[in-house]
Fold:
Amino acid sequence: MAEASTKQLEQKLGFWDLQGSAIGQIIGAGIMSLMPAAINQTGRSVVFSFLIAAVITCCGAIPIIFLCSCVRLRGGTYTQMGLMAGKTFAGMATITSMMQFSLAMYGLSLAAYIRPLFGWPESSEKWIGLAVLTIFFVLNLMGIDAFAKIQNALVVILIGSLIMFGVMGITKVQWGTYFSNEDGYFMMEGAMGMCQAAGLLTFATGGATVVVNFSAEAKNPVRDIPLVVITSTLFVAVLYAILAFVAAGVLPVPEVGNSLVNVANHILPKPLYYVFIIGGAGCALASTLNNQLATSTKPVMAVCDDGWLPRSYAALNKNKVPYKILTTFYIIGAICCVSGLSVSKLGNLSLVVGGVTGAIIAVRTAAIPKILPEQWARSQFKVSQGLLNLMAFIALCGSLFSTYMNASSLFSDMPLLIMNIAFIVGGLAFGYFRGKSPNVEMTVSYDDA
Structure:
């Protein structure tokens, strides 16, 4: 097939499929990859960093909740940007849609948990990460049905394993000294360090909104996507609070290390320790990797529909999967896996970009009644213009706070900060100049649903 469109995708995902997608995305990024890094930055006050991150995340989700309650966004985040902010910013979304560096982060993080179980050398982690990425790339080529079945199974095992970790660990937390700074490991770098850790953790707590990229394949997106974003975020916030206390409060902070392995080894008997490593750490990271491979291709399909990239690039295989786009993301992830970049660097490559994008959308949220007057009138989340203005302002404040904290945490690593800024400038330049081409014609990639 030479060309394809988001209109050809099949609407097969129900509420629980989307819930599995959202929970798998949130938990994988937050607990296994970034929580240890946040603990090393702010110590036991990581619980408060998670609280701040959760509030910012909820604020940042406001635009998606309102907009997705109106229409089916077939191109996900790309359609959202084009509809709300116009052609130049839609071109910028083309660039940001291709930035899938975190695929390698999840693969490498999973490798860091798997490797010790078999006693393999540390140098093998990048190859294990590449193998994991390859497995899920092949599984995603099998179609959305296969994705949903695998994702739901991973999430069920994941939740059970994390609840086990939390229940058995909460009684071993050193509550008497938890909120004390006598050892120097509570608010290690002061309030700013705690807030910078919160900025990093917004990448973790914000995963639920990725389900917007499944709009074209959801059975009832205007009802299910807003509800999924809200309920999955609240559920995981409660779970995070329990796990954060255990992760930071059982062992002295310097002994936590770069993963939760040391904590799990301390609180769990050996058989349950292996269950946690496989069912908790393994399924958390695997579900996030699986989910991102499935969701990341849909915005790029809409990009191709509008001519920013060749339309043939969105070609579907027999399972209705845009295999050329998916293969590109696999190659990007594979290169990052074997490049030697650390997990933290991969997580920071696009942090500022995400915050700026969120700020742009937040500013335009108040204009939804003018952009989609008929659909807004029917929305189950319809509010007064005054309240909508207030919610848009709150969303903007959350995005600006997240952007500032992420940028400030990169001041000590100027190459990463410069790269983040370059992505923003390059994306805007691409949108402006490429948008003048006669080949680029913005089409309506949203439907009433």
